[in-house]
Amino acid sequence: MVEISSGQLAKLFDLPKPTIRHYVDEGLLTPKINETNGYQQFVERDIYKLYQIVFLRNIGFSIEAIKDMLKSDSVLPELKGSIASIDDEINKLKAIKNTVVAIIEETDDIKLNEIQFIEKENRMLQKLPQTIVKKGAVDLLEAYELGYSHLDTFFFILDDNLIETVYGLSQKGSEDKVLPKGIYACKNVEYLNDTQLEKEIASFLQDPLLEISKGNEIVIYENIYASLGFSDKQLVTLEVAL
To answer: What is the pTM of this model?
Structure first.
């Protein structure tokens, strides 16, 4: 029977030696003691047991929970019960990946303070209740109570008479307004204050490149994903359909 030291066992599993000592102290591993030198010696059964411990730790079980599990003949009941939490973790990781991809896509080709012509897909919008729009801004806490998240985009749309209406994204069938698929003139600017943003909007609408636009309706929203791609910038996107 092959016997290995705690250092060799740690190397085999790419673990720090103190972790092996911790598992021994907790009674999860029970090495033999070499009578000649007093060193701990682990056999093949210990290698299997450590794999089991590491596997259960990776799932999310605590040391105490693992100790209780290993007292029974089978860990299957706990493994079956862990599937839902594993699925939750997978969904969280997928959401994180989607956010990372969105940040990269939104930031990769962005040009600040320049008009870019970008094709947009249909965007279904739902008018926000006036109770959550205060002093020209969305009350994020009240929006959260209505089911919106901190990464949701809110659209401030000014019509020909500069009357502002605020929308959030909605599902098809519950929309109050649709921003149709097509080419939009887009300008990304850094938000510093309301006065500066008003000047940016006025300058944008007066740009000769917008002479071919279908109207003066302007779409304004905080570009959250692009902002997350910078260290210290809050970006606002201005859009006009062409």
So the answer is: 0.70
